[in-house]
Amino acid sequence: MSETLKALSNGLADVVETVSNSLVRVNGRRRLSATGFAWNDDGVIITAHHVVRRDEGITVGLPNGDTVPATMIGRAQNADVAVLKVDGDLHASTHPKSDDPLRVGNLVLALGRPRNTPQATLGVVSAIGSRRMEGTIQTDVVMYPGFSGGPLVDASGQVRGMNTSGFSRGASIAIANSYLTNIVDTLLEHGKMRQGYLGVGAQPVRLPEALAEEIGQETGLMLASVESDSPADGALLLGDIVISLDDDPTPTLDALLSLLGGNRVGTEVAVKVVRGGQIETVAVTIGEKS
Amino acid sequence: MNSLLQTLSDDLAQVAERIQPALVQITDGKSSIGSGTIWHKDGLIVTNAHVIVERARRWRGRFGQIQRSQRKMRDVYVVLSDGRQFDVNVLAVDEDNDLAALAIDAQDLPTITVGDSHAVKAGHWVMAMGHPWGVVDSITGGVVIGAADDLPEMRTGREWLALNLRLRPGHSGGPLVNIDGELIGVNTMITGPEVGFAIPAHTVKAFMKKALGEPVSDVVVV
Question: Do A84 and A176 share a structural domain?
Fold first, then answer.
């Protein structure tokens, strides 16, 4: 027999062993413990929001067997991510966090530590999330009980995201690194996720044909309301059709929402609107959604 | 790239071919009810207790104690991979460990080398063979999820190999092998469509020693 199968089997077990150095058990709910993993060498741990049911009295089981108290840094509920911090000897250096694109069909492992020993399941990348699922990786790895919050690891032992069963039964979803980075950075800085705020009610409308051809965009967002004392108040008017934010087109509400990330809070953006048939540019300072 | 996958595919098929002769069918004449693994060349076969013991009825007594009806051995016989059929002599049954030792009147049977189940780690590739739903000599592959006696869903206090593969009714009693084709467990149960459990080979060894006395490898009186 050739060495290929042996190389595969040992390769997988080696990956588990290497990454398990940064794999922790998260005790944050009554029933079963779940999994988390070290994000950096400063004790920052990523886990799933839905497995940490309390903000106080959370403990983390380290790879060396010690159990240490952890503090809650913050939660990103929409992404089912929670960030914890521990004082303990915990290193993430063993798993460089890669951003090279994963491809559909790539082998991936889901790792978990609901008990003391590391556990693993194997699968393939089923789909890379796009549009509304942007920032997620769909796989067919089995989410064994307590695996939520654990890392999705590629064949070279690099962490590619955080697994969670919090979104659906059946398909396993992982939050990709690029997305996690934003979340962790925001939570470490602000303790909560921030969302930009304009203060308008809007609905998509079809643009007049001539205009649509001119700007190469078929729809825009017509303002149905403008909240008083909001960032939009005084700048945007009822009936304006918003077509772009800083030249990023806003043909749908999803497009507008994705442009109102936490990083835009407090910044001035150029809002392009159709007002009285003419295209005008208005400056608006994005507020923070409370 | 293609040749690598080809090699991998050939390797998997080779392991399957190697262990297939040591896999037996346990049948009650009407249908295949489980699998068995030849443990010794002179007719010693290991399988799950639940394959050969009619499910005992359990109920709570007046004071909450568990009562069991008289267990009953199923009237089974064994079909070897070469098609020969044999009556079965049940040597030992351990319902707590879900293991049973059977003897058939045959010599020089193919066996599977027993591997080191203590060396099994999360991520290792393994394959399980059996007769799921009566489909003869079917194989399924996957990785070891973990090996422990405190798995979240198996609080039995006993050691299990948790497996990320698709066991089905009929796989019970069949061999779980590593990539070298060595026996590392006996397929026993499932808790989900893609999570199976096997009794580790060292537990089987201990059962055989206890049931049959040492040395296991010698002839068993039938």
Answer: yes
